Amino acid sequence: MNGGPSLDSVRVVVAFGYHGDAFHGSQVQPGIRTVEGSLRRALERLGWWSEGCLEMSSRTDAGVSVRMNLARIDLPSSVSESIEGGNLLRAVNNNLPIGIVVWKARMVSRGTRIRHSYSRHYLYRTEVISDWPQEVDVNLLSEACSLLEGHHDFTNLCRLEEGKDPVRTVDVCEPWLSSDGRVIGISVKSQAFLWNQVRRIASAVSGVASGRNTLDDIRSALEKPEVPLDLGRAPSDGLMLWSIENEESEGMTDGAMPDTSWFSLPPRDSREHTRWLALARLEMATLLEREWLKRLN
């Protein structure tokens, strides 16, 4: 990856989002549609592509939706005047496939590196997990979440990649309440996450709410990382990267939580849960579209 733009280019940071089910993950993979590959093709069609001109802040697995990710793009100097006026957004979005939207762009200094973020905020709708209870003990769920906050070895709560340090600091892990006070999931913040970490955290705390596992199981998973303990991995379609914060993202978004008072209740009959999941996915997708439209208009 190039460390800086060429002398005849400018560096831009863009905020963008996408529906997880429209792409096979974020990173380029041969022969399949990915987020990074779609951004690259849009830049190629516009004649703005150069090797190393694109760097994404966060990668996501297949099925994971994103309200706000960040990327830095080195663009030809000739297009710099169109960045603030919205022409750049229209040009890029006109060349992107359905399911991905670039909704903010700003010029930054030549040395800006977009991966140096100080907070990533994920929301997970635990209602999509099949054993999520109708009546949730909020105090118990809060206690489960609080166990995961702080500096821990997350070997048992991630898919650990070779050479990766399993120790991470979770700054916030708390219940996510709908606008009308219903517990619908969890809200998790950290500077950096491990592969599958949020989905495994979601499964662990959901398990406490449902009785599938206990608070002591979470304690053991964290305090004894050398002893394998699998507390499950929640499905990807409940996960959303809500926002990223770094020095260049200030003002791009206000950080407010979404209005979810219109989210439907999961059915009491577990046999109907699979059918209801289709509605839940549609609601999550609608939430994203509303967020993007607010910022584009």
From TrEMBL:
Active site: D61
UniProt-recorded Gene Ontology molecular function terms: RNA binding; tRNA pseudouridine(38-40) synthase activity
Enzyme class: isomerase
Binding site for substrate: Y122
InterPro entries assigned to the protein according to its UniProt record, in alphabetical order: PsdUridine_synth_cat_dom_sf, PsdUridine_synth_TruA, PsdUridine_synth_TruA_a/b_dom, PsdUridine_synth_TruA_C, TruA/RsuA/RluB/E/F_N
Catalytic activity: uridine(38/39/40) in tRNA = pseudouridine(38/39/40) in tRNA
Key words, A-Z: Isomerase, tRNA processing
Stretches of the chain forming a coiled coil according to its record: none
Domain of life of the organism encoding this protein: Archaea
Domain annotation Pseudouridine synthase I TruA alpha/beta: ranges: 144-244
Family membership: Belongs to the tRNA pseudouridine synthase TruA family.
HAMAP family: TruA (MF_00171)
Full protein name: tRNA pseudouridine synthase A
Organism field: Candidatus Thalassarchaeum betae
Gene this chain is encoded by: truA
